[in-house]
Amino acid sequence: MADILSEISENLQIGKAKVVVELVGRALEEGIPPQRILDEGLLAGMGIIGTKFKAGDVFVPEVLVAARAMNKGAEVLKPKLAAEGIAAKGKAVIGTVKGDLHDIGKNLVKMMMEGRGIEIVDLGVDVPSDRFLASAKENDASIICCSALLTTTMGELKTVVDAVKASDISGKVKVMVGGAPVTQAFCDQIGADCYTPDAASAAEAAVGFI
Ligand code: B12
User: Fold this and answer.
1) CATH superfamily of 90-209
2) Is the CB of 87 under 6 A from ligand 1?
3) Whole-model pTM above 0.90?
């Protein structure tokens, strides 16, 4: 079992998206729990790439192909990751904040929330605060989820929170924030409604709000 998970991690690191998709499918057939495939296969590989990127051993192009393989592999897991329990009814708008192009975490949060029955409007990456606001209004969403992966874009989370507070949907929409550099302390500081460190707990919290 460990073999196929490390094979997934290794192929993800060299950006072999097709092989990753096949291996994830095979791992599921072998009965490996989807959460384990995500954590010990896909995210383990992405973690190694992150360390190498920081050390300057790999560069943006390599990280990009690895990220593509990660997203493709996660797509295969999507139907299986749906948590048991009663499906919540409700809508959330999700996106990565302005200036930020990281979408893996955002996609995982989206996937987990969809698995809990929440309808998601995905605005993609590099989303300015006014688009979050306009989309939440247009879609009558009860949650706005913002992801930020850079210390330089974390401030955008506050811009979204402030924009919501100053708008006519203040009090009607919850703002959830997350991403690797975000913390509970930062969430409290900017006055966001909720922070969670991972996608599963984000979905759990969203169900609570709805
Ligand atoms: C992949 C990656 C990239 C890819 C992104 C591809 C893609 N499609 O996403 C590319 C190559 C484009 C990239 C570019 C850059 N990157 Co980059 N990247 C990464 C890397 C290696 C992995 C990030 C990732 O996907 N992690 C896995 C996911 C699953 O984790 P996550 O996003 O944190 O999400 C989880 C939780 O945080 C949470 N969550 C996430 N979002 C939300 C939202 C809500 C509402 C909630 C509740 C929860 C939640 O749930 C998720 C699942 O559990 C990190 C290293 C790292 N260790 O994080 C660097 C990293 C984030 N990048 C970094 C940098 C510097 C850059 C660049 C500036 C590099 C450059 N010189 O060009 C550019 C910036 C581009 C831009 N404008 O955005 C730095 C940031 C440093 C800092 N202090 O800000 C990091 C930390 C690497 C490093 N150590 O130097 N990067």
Assistant:
1) Cobalamin-binding domain (3.40.50.280)
2) no
3) yes
